[in-house]
Each structure stands twice: as structure tokens, then as C-alpha cells.
Amino acid sequence: MDAKEDLDVKIGLEVHCHLTSLKTKLFCRCPADYYNKEPNTNICPVCMGLPGSLPVLNEQAVKHALAIALALGSRVSQKMVFYRKNYFYPDLPKNFQISQYDKVGGLPLATGGQIRLKDKVVRIRRIQLEEDPAKIVYEGSISTSPYALVDYNRSGVALVEIVTEPDLTTPKQARQFLQKLRAILEHLGVCNCDLEAALRCDANISVRGGYRVEIKNIGSFKDVEKALSFEVTRQKMLGAKRGMETRHWDDVRGVTISLRVKEEEQDYRYFPEADLPPYIITEDLIAETLAAMPELPDARRDRFIKQYNLPHQAAEILTSHKSLADLFEKSIEKYRSPLRIANWLISDILGYLNRKDLDPSTLKIAPEDIAALARAVDEGLINEQTGRNLLLKAATTGKRIEQKIFAEVSKIGDEATIKALVDRVFKENEKAVKDALKNEKAINYLIGLVMKASGGKTDPHITRSVIVAKLKQLS
Amino acid sequence: MTNIDLRSAKRLVEAIRLGEVSIVDVVEASLNKIKELDKDINAFITINSKKALAAAESLDTKLKRGEKVGALCGLPIAVKDVISTAGLETTCGSKILKGYIPPYDATVVAKLKEAGAVIVGKTNTDEFAMGSTTEFSAFGPTRNPVDKSRVAGGSSGGSGAAVAAGMVPLSLGSDTGGSIRCPAAFCGVVGLKPTYGSVSRYGLISYANSLEQIGPFAANVDDCALLFQCISGWDPMDSTSYRNPPKVESSKICRRVAVPKEFFGEGVEDAVARSVWRGIEALKDGGYVVEEVSLSTLDYALPAYYIIAMAEASSNLARFDGLRYGLSLKSGYRDWNTYFSKCRAKGFGPEVKRRILLGTYVLSAGYYGAYYLKAQKIRNILKTQFQQLFTKYGLIAGPTMPTTPFKIGEKIEDPLLMYMIDINTVPPNLTGHPAISVPVHKEGELPVGLQIIAPYFCEERLFQAAKIVEESLRRQ
Ligand SMILES: [Zn+2]
After folding, report:
1. How far is the CA of B328 from the centre of ligand 1 (A)?
2. CATH number of A415-474
3. Domain limits of chain A?
4. How does pLDDT run across A7-28, given as a tens digit for each residue?
5. Which of A232, A404, A458, B348 qualifies as a FRET site for A473, CA 20 to 30 Å off?
6. What Cα–Cα distance (Å) separates residue A382 from each residue in A365, A368, A379, B384?
7. How far is B97 from chain A (nearest CA, A)?
């Protein structure tokens, strides 16, 4: 699927982002860090929804959500109101979720805003703050599991919901959008997107004005693209069912499965949460958040272009992964070779990560090593190819590069050494020498033999001139 | 020492401090009285004898050592069974919570313990506080100590009856649309619904969370004020509790009383009206200026109240699904919807089901605007009108209940007739104002209550006025 606009397709995304930098959950004082804990130990009366418990808003969560809204250029409400979204499910201890509402009477944290892709502007519909439900664990798959286990450790963790307008027209665009959003969240420092379930996405898709289909359970950005591609093809061939269909992405089989079809949208009976007074978002808080706003990916890209003379494309790629952009800047702080280092990070390192399906943040490579390699190449100590090989090796093993390696791998450039090697090769390959005497093109074969004998370390230009000179003596 | 009079908290505290009686004596007297009377009255769902006596003993020890014991100094107290008590079963008068033992204390319970009170038991209530007679309790109705064939009022009927019968000097109730003031009026005791946000709701199992407050019952005004002081104040666990209540300045209008004629509308028994007017006359004699006024929005208060209360109830009670606490069914239900529906069908009584259904209906798409939003509009108009009235008057007064307590079973078959008796008590819940019910002169045996409403955080003003009414009764 290419990035060309497919005007038959309308895709909207609903992204849920955990505010992982918070210390506590959204409405109680339980730690927000629920990872790797015994099930049902990270809980209290509030996040278990025990009778009589009441929510108290974590104001830090408002600040983080506000930073996201401002970063996306959204209109921030002066007053934010929480609503109850009522539905029965075992992962929802109160059987309602404290969320926000953007229809009549509702005042979500923010509305509007946009994210710019390369040749597309995706509009944001709303940004709101809500609590995460608990986690349901099945034995095997949903349909065959004899029971469901509920772990409330995650219950009540702060989520920011970001909903787009149906502006996306290709699955690839959807992926690019998510990539960009992720880079923004990473630069804001509000979400460690690598953590399990920290960034989740549901997608709405309609083809040729047909009924809207919602796809749930999409685990990764790659899967968003896959699931949407599957859906585009499926709907183009079969059409959508009448009514609102919800489908489930089965990442093992690579297909979407129908969960339910409804004539009308589910009625969540939204109404204001009277246990939480409306929260006033003051001009001061907005000014404070704006003042503390870190450099965002677009600004950083433009600075990379200006400051380091990087091509637009390279700057764009680097800044769409915060950890890669950070590695780049730290490396060139040590040795200023921006073009070479950018090139290495993009084609070698990122290429390797994509092949292995790894995230740049998992890289364990020291900026000092990248700088040293770039310097060694610039100084002629090693050649470009060797530099790239060493870099890749460091990336795959996670080990530091030792300085002495530069001496070992440095090319053999002195004529005496090369002459000795050539003499040996001539002695061992008399037939090839005879051929070369007759046919000038066969010289390359001799050069190859010498290179092989040296382990590729001899300088090819000097080798050629030594061989040509020796052949002249023989003829 | 079984002949200790439990009707005055102040006197009991004095006696305990002077060493005339021990705390164990007082708590035992209370437990004995409960044992003696509660078979007939059914004010209690759970009696906490063992722990209460242990607490009393340790408080006595503290007293002997000269340690601080707090303002309630070992007084036995009853707590409505919709308020969470750590380690003590809390049922809300419902089968669905039978066996539920909260792992935490409501803030008010923690405050009671800090003030040295001893909880002797949990009192009967209409299921989830939904009712006006305590007949809708899964544990049987509470009978009025004045006439046991009659209702005690509700929903905090158990707490009202326990004080009226002299089983405890003090008790806590909750008031969503009159649930403290109604039993106070019906049983002939004093009951206060505080300003919304002055007492923490943390641990109060919600029926209609934007309307309700926990409040005190006592046999007299001074005791009621004492208990209110002990339970009120800001609580960081309740975002709707006030941290810095506005300072109330006293002025000439404090002693001006408005009596809306709508409070004496059809349905108010003549004898009740006469008794209430005698109470109002007592205020006049005490130097208050009384004027009749009209507040036409009051006619819409009852429907607005029921729509909002039921809407909130439908959501607040959703959590009772048989999964984490209380009633649970034997397995064998693979489908979640079937399981929780069966549980709720089995666990909830008829009035709770009625309110959940109606509340779900008024919040549904297409009806939300016609019911819920309209009710909120009426609520806002009423709030504004009360505020305006309070720029000219210091208090508003009228009958708490339109009738005297009726026979058990008399109205239970007719929900609308039952809802009608809340007509005068719901306005302060909609507006958030504090309101007290204080007994006035009765023509027959059955008690009548005068309701007095004050501006926000002016509970003190209510106590002053109520005391004048109380004293006029004593002189008679
Ligand atoms: Zn918690």
C-alpha cells in the first residue's frame, strides 16, 4: 500500500496514552507504575470502586494532559468537567468509567488541534483525560478460555484519549500519524511508549461512504497498518455490514474478526460526575505549561536542517524517534560529522532495528563510540565500510568499541607490505599472471586475490599500481 | 447500672468526666436498652456489642490514666448502615451487600472514633436509603417508638428511632431528600441535614451523590450541635467537601424568617399546620420577625429531585454486580450479562429496582434533555431563588413533613403517594442548604417537626432558632 491518497477510504484513530511519568493513578494515591506486580496488589478502595469511595483528581495528570493538548495546538477548555460513561464490564469496578464528554453540556480538556504529516494535515477532534479499566486475562483466547481473571492493578491509571477526525486515507498514513504522535509524546516526556499497553489504538474505517467499522485490540503501529490494509481490502471486496460493526484484530492470523453489529451506537448514558467539581484551567497554568514546553519534533527537525545542514528527509526521520535524535546530537557533540553520523544512524542502525522489529530506545550504543568511528573514517584510519561494520557490531552486541581495534582494522597502505603480498600471490597463481599478461582485464582478478590474502585491508589503488608495475617488469 | 438516662449526651459526658459513671457502664446501658427494646422497634441491623465493650474498656483506661478522650468521651452512638465501618458489616439494608465488611472507615466514622465515641451498632434503613419510611429495608421495617404500629420515617428510620427510644444519645443518618429530617419529625427528635460539602461523604455509600449529606440525630438541639461539630470539616478524600467555608457575618436579617406558603400546600394535614405555626410563633416570641412569602418554583422541586436522584442512583448502584463483594451466585453462568443481571435481580428489592429503571430511562439518549437537563435547570432556578430569599431573610421555615407518622403498610403500595411526603424536605437537598427538623407542640400523641432552612454554612443559626423552639416546648 503506498502513501497515495485513497479518496474512497476514511480512517479515524482513537489513541489511548498512559501518562507513565505520573507517580500516582488518576483518582487515588496508588502508584501509577503497575508493571510487574502481583495481581491485585496495586489497589485501594477508590480504584477498586468499593462502596463509599470517592475520586480525588491528580492535578499532575491535568498538567501532563494539558501539555499534550498545547503541543497539538488544541483549544483548551477554561473549565474541564468529568462525565460518567456507564456500561457494565468486569474490568470496570464501578461499572462506569470516569471520562469526559464532548457533546451537549460536556467540556473535555481540549478540542481541535492537528498533527502535520509530510503532505497531510490530520485534524484532532478532542483530547480528554480518563481512567483506565483493569486488565482481563484469559487462558488462551477469549472464545475458548474457561474463565476470565481480572487484575485491578491497572484500574484507575491516567489515560489521555486523543481522537482524530476521519482525515486519514491510507493505512500507511495512519502509521505515520501514530509515529509522529509518539515522537511528540516522547519529546514531551509524558509517556514511555515502550511500556506494555502504554500506547493503544482503536481505528474507525469506512470505505466508499459505507458503514463505519471499528477495529479494536490493535497492539502495535505495524499492526495498525496491517489491520487497516486488511480492512480496506475486505470492505472493498465485501462491503460493510449494515449498522455499526466492531471487529477485533487477530494479530496471529493477521485478520479482523467481527465482534458485534449494532443498529445504533451504544448508549453510555453520559452525565456529569458530581463527585468531582469542575476543574478550572487557568491562564496561568496554560502559560506555565507553554513556558515549560520542550522542543517538539517539528521544531527539532527544522533546527537539525539549519544547524547541521541535514537534508529534510534525514532530519525528519531522526526527529521522529526521540532516542535516535538524542543519540545523534550527543554523538556530534563529541565529533562534529553530522552528515556521516545521520546517514549511519538512518541507514545502518534504523535499518537494523526495523529488520529486528526493535525500538530505537532499546539501543545500547555510546555516542562516544559513534563519534570515534566517524573521526577514524574522516582521518583515514579506517575506511567507510569498516566504520559501518563496526557500528553495526556495536549496536547488535551492545558492547563498547575499544580504541585498539582501529589499529587492527586500519587499511594496509604502505607499498612494502603490499609488494610482499603481491609477490606471494604471483608465485602461487602462475596461470592467473600469464592471463593478466595477455589480457589487461584479468588484472582485476589478481587485485581480488591480493585483497583476499590481506583480509580486505590493502588499499585497492596502491595494490593495482604495484601489480601493474610488476606485470610490466615481467613482460 | 441499667437506669442511666441516655437522652442527653452533654449530661452523660459530664457524668463520665466526673467519674459518676464509667464508659463501660454507659455503653452497657445502651446495649441493654437495645436488647430490651429492639425486638419490637427493629432500629438495628447489626449490633456491635463485643467490640463496643472492648472500646469502652480501653477508653475507661485512658480516662483513668488522664489521657485525652475527645469531645464525645465514650458516648455510645449508632451509625446508619449506609456508612462504611471497617471490620463491621455494612449492608445498606440490602441483600446484595449482605456479608460485606468494608476494609476502611468512612471519614465520619474515623472522626467519631477520634472524638471518643463508641459505635454500638448499625441502624436500619430503606434499601440504599431509597424510601421515606424504612419499610423498604431487606431486614424488615423499623417501628416508631412513639407508636409501634406506625412508621418511623426514613430512610434513616433506624437512627431516628434509636435516639427516640433512648437506646443511644446520638446517631448518624444520611439525608438525600429528607432522610434525616423525616424520621426526626416522625420520631420526635432533632435531626440536621448539613450544608452540602460541610461533612465528608467519603465512605457514605452513594444513593444520589450530588444531593446527600451525612448528619446528626439527637434528643435535643445542643447534642445535635455537638455531634455536628465532631463530624464536619474539610476532607481531602472528598473533593466536594469545603476547605475554607465562607465566613458568615451576622446581621439584622439573621432574625427574619420567611415562611413560603407552598410549604403549607395541599396534602399538609391541618393539625400538622397548626403545630408548625405554634413553633413559628415561638420564634416570634423569641424576637424573630416572621413573614409569609411565595416561592413558586417549589412546586417543581419534587419531580426535579426524583429525576436527579434516580439518575444518579442508576449509575451509583451499577457497581453491585456480584463480582467483588457482597452477594455472589454460584458459578455456572458463562455469560457476564446473564451473571450480573441475575445477581442484581436477586439482590435488589422492588424500590431500588424501580429507581434504577427510571434513572436509566431519564439518562437515555433522547430523554436526557427532556428529563435530566430540565431537572437540573429547575435545580439552578431554585438555588438562585433561595439565594435571593436569603438576601432578605435569615431563615426559611415550614413543616418538615406534611403528615404525622402513618401506619406501617399504609402507603407502601403507592410509590407516588409515598414520594409526595418528601415535598418539603427535598428543596434544601437540591440547593445544598442546611436544614434542621425540631419537634414542636403536638396535638395528639404523634410528633410533628418544624423544618428550618439557613444559608450555606449557617448551621449555628439553625441551632439558635431550633433551641428557642425547643425551650418553648419545655415551658408548656
Ligand atoms: Zn487506588
Report:
1. 23
2. 1.10.10.410
3. 9-290, 295-409, 415-474
4. 889 999 999 999 999 999 999 9
5. A458
6. 19, 17, 8, 83
7. 10
Query: Where residue A139 falls among pLDDT bands split at 50, 70, 90?
Result: confident
Q: Are A161 and A14 in contact (CB under 8 A)?
A: yes
- Ligand 1 ion: nearby residues, β-carbon < 5 Å: A 28, 30, 44, 46-47
pLDDT at A37 over 80: yes
> Cα–Cα distance between A50 and B103 in angstroms, integer?
9
Q: Name the CATH topology of B9-231.
A: Amidase signature (AS) enzymes (3.90.1300)
**What grid cell was written down for B407?**
401506619
Q: Give the pLDDT score at A264.
A: 72
Q: How much is the pLDDT for A411?
A: 61
Q: Give the mean model confidence (pLDDT) for residues A208-217.
A: 87
Pairing of strands B256-260, B289-293: parallel
Domain spans, chain B: 9-231
pLDDT (0 to 100) of residue B179: 98
Of A275, A276, A280, which to mutate for an interface test with B (greatest number of B Cβ within 10 Å)?
A275
Q: According to the model, what pLDDT value does residue B1 have?
A: 47
* Contact present, A107 and A63 (Cβ < 8 Å): no
The answer for B 46-105 residues in CB contact with A (under 8 A) is 83-84, 90, 92, 97, 100, 102-104
Do B365 and A271 lie within an 8 Å CB cutoff?
no
From B179, B198, B200, B437, active-site residue: B179
Q: Does the annotation mark B342 as catalytic?
A: no
In whole numbers, what is the pLDDT of chain B averaged over residues?
96
| CA angle (B174 as vertex; B168, B178 as ends), nearest 5 | 110
| Residue A412's pLDDT band (cuts 50, 70, 90) | low
pLDDT at B147 exceeding the cut of 60: yes
Cβ contact (<8 Å) for A271 and B240? no
Query: pLDDT value at position A410?
Result: 56
Q: Measured between beta carbons, which residues in chain B are less than 8 angstroms from residue A276?
A: 239
Whether residues B237 and A54 touch (CB distance < 8 A) is answered with yes
HSE-CB at B437 with a 13 A cutoff on CA atoms is: 30
Q: What is the pTM of this model?
A: 0.90
ipTM score for this prediction: 0.96
pLDDT of B398-442, one tens digit each?
Answer: 999 999 999 999 999 999 999 999 999 999 999 999 999 999 999
Pick the residue of A53, A81, A82, A97 with the most B CBs within 10 A to test the interface with B by mutation: A53
Asked if A275 and B106 come within 8 Å (Cβ–Cβ), the reply is no
